[in-house]
Input
Amino acid sequence: MFHFKESIKTISGEQYKDDRNIEIVNFPFVTTIGSWAFSRCENLKTVHFPYAETMGSNAFHNCKKLKTAYFPKAITLGMWAFEGCVKLRTAYFPVAI
Output
């Protein structure tokens, strides 16, 4: 599992694109996820972003093993953020999104 420092607030676009080693991520203080940030992370199964408010387009595009996504503070969700996530079964978002 990837755990990250409190100082990380933003994940840049394409930052982890195509990373096949990531299975579970927990970014406790990230507020912004860039476009294509985790696109095609083919072994990614669970993402936990308790403070993320903004997610760019295609952020998790084609993460085919992604099953659980946790974004309770999300305000903006980019187009096709979860396109191709064929195993996504559980997603936590605010009611208003």
